[in-house]
Amino acid sequence: MKDNLVRILIALLLLAAGAWLVSATEWADTANPTPARGEAATNQFYLAQKLLRELGAKVVKRQALDHLPPKEARLVLLSQRWDLFPDRAGRLREWVEQGGHLVIPDYIFDEHKSLKDWLPIKANYYAIPKPGPKPAQAPGSRAALLKDENCRSLTEPESLPASYDGVRSFRVCFEPGRRQFTPIGKTQALWSVQSPAGIEMLRVPVGRGTVTVINYVGALNNFNLLRADNPLLVATALQARSGAEFWFVVEEAREPFLRWLWHNGQAAILLGLLALAFALWRAGVRFGPLIASAGTQRRSMAEQVRGTAEFLHIHGGDALHAAQVRALDESAQRHLHRHAIGDAERLTAAIAQATGLDARALSEAMALRKRGPGALAADLELLETALRRLDANAIPHASTSH
Question: Considering only the top CATH level, what class is 40-128+146-249?
């Protein structure tokens, strides 16, 4: 019996705690946005491009306006530096006049005088009205308030055909801009949407093409595109059609210089690298000669006679004598100690001592004087004998006498 009372008491306590928990808490759904992944994390216009693809259009993303789209295509120009090169403005105008459809945000129209010169559109600034007081937040309505933030209505004028049957009003959710647009002169608008402050988006004809100015690029970004009637308004502003081609130029970017150089000059770079490698190989240090060195061989007697005769014929006997004396002097410098600082007499004595020849005869043979053919031959023979003996003996430390 006592155990049953304990069980009943515990059950009552649990029941009371549950009742208090229900009365003291509130359960509500909370919207937690999922972080973007993949291409959506890096491309702020991913949803707009996906919407166009789902409608059957072709989307081309470009990093520069180097080339213009085909005729009848749609060019969504969002890059502030699209006219980096002066010829682009003229080419863009020609493209529109020949049938292209250009879509630009208001800041592009305002910041580029090259567009104002030929677009029949005028922009007026106005002050954005301050938002009224927000309604009191009812319990459980926070998610709904965040979802409806910055929302308002834009309508198509009655004077123009409605984009959708029976629908002229769009409930859009994005910040309003500070500009309203009007056509200039006799230009008639092809399409427009307006708020009480004025026209926020406008399309006018230019030649065989069209130009559409949208008030705020925020309507295209991933955060706002799926809110309220934003997808309908974007499809209308971009003239989305099945089979149409859309070019998005969001920024003026260039390929890194080294990568661009490789893509445009691979052949020249490869040839230059091969030439550099060949030059370094030619100038490099080698481990040995390219070919084996030829052995030192003496000339034959016939070659010696012919060479001597040719030398005598060209230079004369005195030159041959001087060459023979110079050869003997160079041999003495290699083999006789202190020869370089000795005088002629000491030189003769040192050579005579090293070779065993008569010093007086050697001195007369080395002297510069006029000789007859017989005397020249005898002196040359004596000098050659001294040279050969000196080289054969190879006495490196023979000293001169004092």
Answer: alpha beta
